[in-house]
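>> received
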Amino acid sequence: MKPKGWSKRTGYKMSDRDTRQIGYQGVQYDPHCFQSQLKKLKDDGREKKTLQNVKVIQIPFDIAQEFILQYEWLGTMGTTKFSYGLYDDGELVAVACFGTTAGTGALSEPFGAEYKDKGIVLVRGASAPFAHQHSSSYLIGQCRKLLKKRGIWFAIAYSDPSAGEIGTIYQATNWKFYGWTSPVTYLVRPDGKRVDPKIIHKYAKKNGISSADQKQRFVDEGYTFEKGNSKMKYLLFTDQEKTLMKSKRVEFYPYLKRTDRMDLLHEEWHKEHKKSSINTLDNPKDEGIIDEQERRAIRRTKESHI
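>> returned
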């Protein structure tokens, strides 16, 4: 029997905080990210840790979950497979959760299907209000070493501008920014939390029914669907960077910065990137760096503007 607070539908423990005050039901594209808002709400004025007597270890799912539900604005564990925790003076102050929420397609994108099994997704992460200001960056640095020991060569992560995110922690720890995701349609739980629609197929298989029947079952239980926004994609090399770079299938771009109009971030980047691509095509000495497929796409874009 599941403890009180667990959902029989998802198998995950629900956060008990008021989702009307924080999260996806907050003000979209707020220049102050939802994670920072939540941290301020949770801050009781406790003295900050010193980051002097620390250790990073793999922690059990339930310990990671209790921390994430309290300090991470999404309020769920996603599809976490394993987690690392940063302890400062014996107290848990930050957690990073890894899994494959984005699917193997996302892990194939940077370097091809040959290396998809060498990748992992950072699906959740948070630090406590009383943690040292550099706790998250320190944890990422240690996770990089630990992932390498597991045979993982790269990690990917996402930042959601609609939640005020720009990827500050990823930029501070030298991740590569490689563009934007395509918008997806989310499954929205009755408590307002958005989850990956792939769980429809997961629970259909678990319940021995078709995906269509499972989808209808979710709808009958109060689930709805909502179109999401494009997210920023980041990548961190943990091992074998030279080998992976030989098979690189994406471009790395300069970091974007936070603005008061986060809602325009994607549109403005897209326009600038399109303009830059056309200019590159016009410069013969740079043309060799663009593959044939991209050259054709750029030509079509250019012709449409004539």
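>> The mean pLDDT is 83.
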